[in-house]
Write a structure and sequence with these properties.
This protein has 14 helices and 15 strands. It is an alpha/beta fold. It has a domain at about 30-70 and about 75-140. It is globular, with a radius of gyration of 21 Å.
Length: about 400
Amino acid sequence: MTHRERLIRAINFMDVDHVPMDLGGMDSTGISAFAYSNLVKFLCLQERLPYVHDTGQMLALPDLDVLDILDCDVISIRMGFANGYTNEDDWGRFNFGGRLDAKVINPSRFEVLPDGTILQPKLGLKMPTNSYVFDSEHGGQPVFFDGDLPKLDLGKIKEDLNAHRLSEETIEKVIKICEKVYKETDRALFLNGPMLGIGIGNFGGVGYFPLLCLTDEDKVKELHELLLNHALSELERLLPYVKNYIHIYMCNSDDWGTQHNLIASPEIFKKLFLPYYKEFNIHIHRLAPNVKTFLHSCGAVYDLIDLFIECEFNILNPVQWTAGQYTPNDWKKKCEGKLSLWGGGVDTQKVLPLGSKEDIIKQVSEIVSVFSKDSGYVFCPIHNILAEIEPWKIKTIYETAKSIKR
């Protein structure tokens, strides 16, 4: 099978020769630029500067030769570039404290302090000299309970949405990249955006927004209607022109789970989120019947799976079966034949960073055997491969996943 055939068959619950695999299709199936540079050296490939496309999480855009060696099946289409398809005029060189020489979009966004700390002032982000990512105080979500809940300024939100509409230049660039990648590679195309933009942790953060869902349902509905209408208008400008090239559409990133439970109740999801997700999915499926829709939702979200299916999503990621009380078998049984699983292939919190080679092989083998039964599965770790992960471990997980016989 070609990479594309394998991926398409898997997400349509059809037999495949081996499990399809992803590295970096979207921003939670990726790899730290620090780990990526080490991986390139380990694979004895020509040295190169990594393209750091996400300068918050510091994620690298994997090169095609790396995807070839790991035998990954997915090309990540971004708003203006893709794996192996970058316009060098859009990227500039920046050295992250002598620890990582890289290419980034708009190097002028960074400011370096005398002690080596790197800032992104407009975003309020900083990377101390011993850190591998950018972060902000309180994760950017401070919570104060000594006053009223923050108010949603829908007028300001609408202004921001209009100010960040895709430009005609960007749309044209994405269309050309999709066509070129489709014709020149045999991989499946994963389009990232425009996304719906709703989320249980948005607009004030996870400390406030769930409370707003309880105290002001009407305002939340107004917000979600505004976001839906904006997303649909952007969708109409792009999807009809790329629908014959792409295979997966990244709809939203909306983390509903903690390590043990849901952030808010299924009733809140059903009332305030499901109608908007469903309409967005219906619209995508109407415009592009062969494109599968993708939802990212971290944590213990098992109790929302039936509602995700009711929303008409086709794919769920990251399959964080380590969170909550349910087993991989429980997750597979709940989704079987109805919702493809994308991820979950190895525990990125414990086994991948701390386990032995035998531990890693054992877990990957067990998980892939469960999730790939009757197809409907794409392999990658539960979340991004972090900076400290040794390159031999990365090669091991992909080799092991591919070796599992069905």
